[in-house]
Amino acid sequence: MIGYLNGKVVEAKTEELIVSVNGVGYQVNLPSAFSYYQSGDDCELYIYTYVREDALELFGFKERESKELFIKLLSVSGIGPKVALSIISTLSPEKFAQAVVNENINVLKQVNGIGPKSGQRLILELKDKLDDILLVAGSQSGSKTLAHDDELYSALNNLGYQDNEINNAVNELSNELAGDLEDRIMQVLNYLGKE
């Protein structure tokens, strides 16, 4: 099983990379959050090897938490790798975990391929299995900061940005992101190249 790759991007598509590691090219499926990689970039990915009778596929993630969430999603009946990838592309692990724990189907239905029935199934099967994601979220930012993040995400969602784009910006700016809500919105917008 391949669990990690560190190499150079040979070819980059929206949701797929070919990564060269010591002369071997690995084709890796990615959440759409990775669409910023270009040929020649160095990349480091946590890998999940998906094995079926008729397929052997690699799925890559920037954070270990996203990979862990992907594995948990695959354990839910009716959720395959494409829907699991769509969930991770649309919602951060923390936001997904909060939606499941709070039984917020409306947040889950934002994901392409998730309807009321599959949303209910996700809640039923994962509600007690996401404590580690919530603990990581809580340790990285206090509950007060999480509430502010919800406001920030909501405001940027209203401007047309997806959670994965916001996550990338917030992660890159984490130490510098400060001020009131309006200041933080402007900082993220500047990072995303739009004002």
From TrEMBL:
MF terms in GO: ATP binding; four-way junction DNA binding; four-way junction helicase activity; hydrolase activity
Record keyword Cytoplasm present: yes
Location within or outside the cell: Cytoplasm
Domain Helix-hairpin-helix DNA-binding motif class, first and last residues per copy: 71-90, 106-125
InterPro entries in the record: DNA_helicase_Holl-junc_RuvA_I, Hlx-hairpin-Hlx_DNA-bd_motif, NA-bd_OB-fold, RuvA, RuvA_2-like, RuvA_C
Keyword Cytoplasm: yes
Main location, first listed in the record: cytoplasm
Assigned keywords, A-Z: Cytoplasm, DNA damage, DNA recombination, DNA repair, DNA-binding, Hydrolase
Chain intervals for the UniProt region annotation (Domain III): 150-195
GO biological process: DNA recombination; DNA repair
Pfam families: HHH_5, RuvA_C, RuvA_N
Cellular component annotations (GO), alphabetically ordered: cytoplasm; Holliday junction helicase complex; Holliday junction resolvase complex
Comment block on domains: Has three domains with a flexible linker between the domains II and III and assumes an 'L' shape. Domain III is highly mobile and contacts RuvB.
UniProt-listed NCBIfam families: ruvA
Subunit relationships: Homotetramer. Forms an RuvA(8)-RuvB(12)-Holliday junction (HJ) complex. HJ DNA is sandwiched between 2 RuvA tetramers; dsDNA enters through RuvA and exits via RuvB. An RuvB hexamer assembles on each DNA strand where it exits the tetramer. Each RuvB hexamer is contacted by two RuvA subunits (via domain III) on 2 adjacent RuvB subunits; this complex drives branch migration. In the full resolvosome a probable DNA-RuvA(4)-RuvB(12)-RuvC(2) complex forms which resolves the HJ.
Family membership noted in the UniProt record: Belongs to the RuvA family.
Function statement: The RuvA-RuvB-RuvC complex processes Holliday junction (HJ) DNA during genetic recombination and DNA repair, while the RuvA-RuvB complex plays an important role in the rescue of blocked DNA replication forks via replication fork reversal (RFR). RuvA specifically binds to HJ cruciform DNA, conferring on it an open structure. The RuvB hexamer acts as an ATP-dependent pump, pulling dsDNA into and through the RuvAB complex. HJ branch migration allows RuvC to scan DNA until it finds its consensus sequence, where it cleaves and resolves the cruciform DNA.
Name by which UniProt lists this protein: Holliday junction branch migration complex subunit RuvA
Gene label: ruvA
